[in-house]
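Workshop exercise sheet. Pairs work together: one partner reads the sequence aloud, the other fills in the structure field after running the prediction. Swap roles for the next sheet.
Pair: D.N. / O.F.
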Amino acid sequence: MTGNKTALVLGATGLVGQALVQQLLTDARYSAVICLVRRPVAANLFDDPDRKLQPMVIDYDQLQDYQGYFNVNHVYCCLGTTLKQAGSRAAFRKVDFEYVHVAAQLSRAQRCDGFVWISSVGANANSKQFYLRVKGELENAIMRMPQLTHASAVRPSLLLGSRASSRPLEEFGQKLAPLLRRVLVGSLSKYRPVYAREVAAKMISLQLF
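Structure field:
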């Protein structure tokens, strides 16, 4: 039996986004899973037996114009890039800070029940590392946003899974992952490499209301 909640996913075609959407499509709470994407989604990308998936092609640079899509129960934001892919610090910040921040603002405007996004282990607005500083600044901006109920960030370490694009550091981490997952325990457990499906499951667990 399918529930009556609706979910909105941003970044549905990324590593975590794909795992998340697939889990949402089998979650009995949801009757619809809306995905805001830059380009049409391949028909075979997801297994959707109940036909819940509703992909919508949008221009992320004009995200504020799509406020109506945020009239859902739960918003999941999996947007993110790398400095190499973005090409510049400004382009990186546009994706990892501006887009996510606008999504949080639209979620608040539509009074969504919950907003969950992907941050990073070590996120700190005072960090000397640009990547971690941007992630920390975003956490501060969203968590201080008034009237945004149930906003939560997940802070994964190195992400594991099969990517379309090559990331040498992550490929190296994939090889070391079994060892690192055994030795990083206790206070160091937050630095363990984590599979995309695990991050997705954590995001969904934060929307249990």
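Discussion prompt: The first strand starts at residue 5 and ends at 10. What would you look at next?
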